[in-house]
Amino acid sequence: MTRILYLSLSNATYSSNYFPFLRRYIDDFVSEGTEVELRGARVGRIDSFRFWEALDSVSILDSVLDAEQSGFDAVAIGNILDPALREARSMVDIPVLGYGETSMLAACLMGSKFALVGVNPYFGGRFEENVAKYGLRERLAGIECMDLTPHELDACFSDDEGRKRATDSFLAAARATMARGAEVIIPAGGRITAFLNSVGLREVDGAPVLDGTATLLAMTESAVRIRAAAGSFVSRRRLYAKAPTDVIGAAAAEYAESYGLPALARLADPATEAPEEKK
Fold first, then answer.
1. How far is the C-alpha of 141 from the C-alpha of 75, rounded, in Å?
2. Which residues of 185-210 are buried (b: 16+ CB within 10 A; e: fewer)?
3. Residue 220 has pLDDT above 50, yes or no
4. Does domain 112-211 have CATH number 3.30.360.10?
């Protein structure tokens, strides 16, 4: 049995249509013998802005630590911005994959240039940062934003008129990037991907619409197999260097108490009981 923790920066309370669809999609997609737990952020309400995203990232880091302690084989961070991805990799030995990085790298296998089509106007600059961080500037054809908000898109799952508006908005944005050379379209987020899956939109004028959720799940399952075969997955040289065990032991309790990280507290005192998680 392979166990994967799928983390969302959203919360079921604020994504009442998206979360049930995502749960069903995950169950239908993963391989037989793979179990996926879906967990939202503690709050997950206004991740459009960097300050609040940073606060929600704390719950991601604690969940990643908890996953390793609880025997999960890998973690998938299902947010296009890859929040806390590098920090998480530097702390655990199980594979941790991010939605954005995985989607972009997969798109490079499908065409020479890709584009990101988002639903949040505040994300454009952060997309550019991550594209540069992953060394993919020359592979990016463009970034476009749909003409509606994330919460409006969530409502479109169950509204016929809204569904047409959202579909037309995505097509217009995708074609704008294709005019600039895009060969693969990445819907920039799990919510958009879920919506496009719900309406069966798989390509635009010959350009594949990459399913980032399926890609993330497939790559995470593969990462588990790679680690099992190779004995390790993440490098401990430079970027993902892990703090020495004695340093972690000396500092974990103080950090855990100050920032509210139960899983980190268990590193300092393994006898600490795990609190009931808010799912």
1. 29
2. bbbbbbbbbbbbbbeebeebeebbbb
3. yes
4. no
Q: How many other CB atoms sit within 10 Å of the CB of residue 252? A: 20
Mean pLDDT for 124-132 is: 94
- Domain covering 2-99+215-268 in this structure, CATH number: 3.40.50.1860
End-to-end CA distance of the chain: 22
Its sign, for the CA torsion 26, 28, 30, 32, is positive
Q: What confidence score (pLDDT) does residue 133 get?
A: 96
Strand order in the sheet with 114-118: 140-145, 114-118, 184-187
Boundaries of every domain in the chain? 2-99+215-268, 112-211
Q: Is 72 helix (H, G, I), strand (E, B) or coil?
A: coil
Query: Length of the chain in residues, anyone?
Result: 279
